[in-house]
């Protein structure tokens, strides 16, 4: 029982890390587009 709970916790942490990474990448992409628009 303990092992299953620990594995689930690790999976959730991985999902959170991946979600945060994707959000960060999207944010950087948006910032780049806004920056390019400002340059024009």
- Element string (H = helix, E = strand): H
Low-confidence stretches: none
Question: How does the major sheet shape up?
Answer: none
Question: What helical percentage do the residues reach?
Answer: over 70%
The average pLDDT is 88
Shape: rod-shaped
The count of β-strands is 0
- What is the helix tally? 1
How many structural units, i.e. domains? 1
The computed structural class is mainly alpha
Q: What gyration radius follows from the Cα positions, in whole Å?
A: 17 Å
Measured by DSSP, the beta-strand proportion falls in under 5%
Through-space gap between termini: 59 Å
Question: What labels would you give this structure?
Answer:
mainly alpha, 40 residues, rod-shaped, 1 helix
Give a description of the structure.
The chain has 40 residues and is mostly helical. It has one domain. Helix content is 95%, strand content 0%. It is built from 1 helix and no strands. The protein has one helix at residues 2-39.
Brief rundown of the structure:
It is built from 1 helix and no strands. It has 40 residues and is mainly α.
Write the layout of secondary structure elements.
Layout (H helix, E strand, L loop, with lengths): L1 H38 L1
């Amino acid at each position: 029982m303990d092992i299953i709970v620990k594995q689930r916790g690790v999976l959730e942490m991985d999902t959170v890390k991946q979600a945060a990474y994707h959000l960060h990448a999207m944010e950087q992409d948006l910032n780049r587009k806004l920056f390019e628009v400002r340059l024009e």
